[in-house]
Amino acid sequence: MYVINGQLIDGDPGNAQAVLATAHMTGTRPRCTCQDGDGADMYIAKVSGRYLIKRMPGTGSTHDPMCASYAPPPEVSGLAHLLGKAVKEQPEATRITLGFPLTHHGLRVATTAAATETDDSASDFTKLTLRGLLHLLWDDAGFTRWTPGMLGKRNWATIRKYLLSAAEDKTTNRTPLVNRLWIPETFNSERKAEIIARRTVAMSCLTGNGSRRRLMIAVGEIKRITPTTTGAALLFKHVPDLPLHLTHETNARMIATFGTELSLRADNPDTHLIGILTFGESNKGTADVDQIAVMTVTQHWIPITTPTEKHLVDRLTDDQRRFVKSLRYNLGPDTPMAALTLIDTSPATACYIIGPDDSDRQRSGFDSLISTSQLDSWIFDTASETTPPASAWRDRRSHDEPGQPTLDIELPDLPEGSHGDE
To answer: pLDDT (tens digit, 9 = 90+) per residue, 42-57?
Structure first.
């Protein structure tokens, strides 16, 4: 629920758009009513012709944990290291600096593979890795947040819609990110020609000249990766007619860097494998992958990195708990970090996973994080299967109003004759 100039924003969406348009023109800030007192300032952005109320940069932890605008404090995720450097949040736009090219010039086309990092994590926090960009979009789209009301309401159409919305306010080198981002539409046999036509228009920016080769960023669910004589062919779900070519070198680096994610997907048929990659058009007209990173997500599209994280996330979702999953962004796997934040406890509780193979250095790192965090903490010891803190009953009526923007939306079923799993 929001208040603008004393007026409660609720009810008819059309009327709300008129109110938001006026407030946007006059620079009036809405206030979120999730907390007692005056509430928290928000801002209004115009995205794809519609006005949206968005959280002010750096204010996520000032909202009530049950509010859709709440975000755990930055120290419980890898985002803290990037804010003000690779990610500069401002009202109306977020400027990001990418650590990978979207254009190749001259001989760089031939030498890119050799220059590519062997590990997608990095200690340079002034630039986003591919995985870091995927985590930023996933976070901003709200797919790290889970409440029981989201059960059964996430599918690829939902994922695509909110990822594109998350990309709308981001720029890199003064270029809107959405201009270089392709996310496949849900396949529909009756609209196949329309979908391919829109894809062709979206990829028209790949056309360059002899000395310059443009690249695009693609995000999709990987259906399969098939070895070929020249490397491997990657197929996204919903895109059966466009194989993406990986060289032997690129494919080998992906397997070496993301072996844990690939194994996690292979061992758990209920999970999804999300790929983010840069690709361009070769001289032969094929779509060639330049760099790639992957992320495993649960059946409810919540990111996971280890079997233990999957076990914990599945347990919490089955128990109808509410939480926000932490993401590593550029951080490596050995850097201590909270796995998630329970938002149905009072106050919110950061969860840390400790395994039998963790070193004394890692355990000391957890202790340091816990001692400096503003959140309560819970350590999930894999050896003893510790019980999570009990949820606190709370009056959530102020957060469950129809006008409150959440991902709890029902999408229409696919038309008969469509094949959403292609």
So the answer is: 888 877 677 888 888 7
